[in-house]
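Lab notebook: predicted structure, single chain.

Context: the supervisor wants predicted structures on file for every construct in the current expression panel, including those that have not yet been purified. This is the next one on the list. No modifications to the sequence; it matches the entry in the shared construct table.
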Amino acid sequence: MTTNKQQKQSRQAAENGRLLARVTPPTETGSLGLQPLGLSAKRDGFIYVPKGYQASRPAPLVLMLHGAGGDAEGGLVPFRQLADAAGLILLAPDSRRQTWDVIYGQYGPDIAFIDQALTQTFSRYAVDPTRLAVEGFSDGASYALSIGITNGDLFSHVIAFSPGFMVPAGQEGSPRLFISHGTHDSVLPIERCSRKIVPQVQRAGYDVLYREFNGPHTVPPTIADDALDWFMAEGK
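Prediction complete. Output recorded below exactly as produced.
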């Protein structure tokens, strides 16, 4: 039973952008394949567990964050077709509103919901803490960078496809970063976005792999492949 003190601590953590969930040995048995999270009657989300998952072999996990106006189903797209071959667990929550909370001004409800989704996932599946990434596209990429840096003691990797900005609430740990951006992006122009973000995180001491590509505001399959190869190799 959650006490008032624990509720207050969780609320304060969420407002500070901090995730409290941590990888632990699972105490339940989860199903394979694509399933709804079952955490909200309205905006919920999905988890995809690969066919080859075995509880005896902790799996890499990617928290996948959709863009503005999107949803969890779309958020799965970059890695959905690659998950079985790579043995990836994919966790894709819906934002509480049209986009992620800090983009409206401050952290809070989305952090709390993501924390709930991660806690549930860790209770059901064996996860490799050395290969635990947060990924996003567009607004989701901005949010992935922000919460990944804020929670670098949880996430080992951050994958940001075409981010617009970042607003970490602090720096914890030292996650590795993958950032990509199209040179013809008219939604979030590369000059005022990734070409400013990348030098900032490099100056802050982060290990960054940066990929520019000749294209618009999108995630080309080759870029998704590169990001996944980088993520899987770094964790070995």
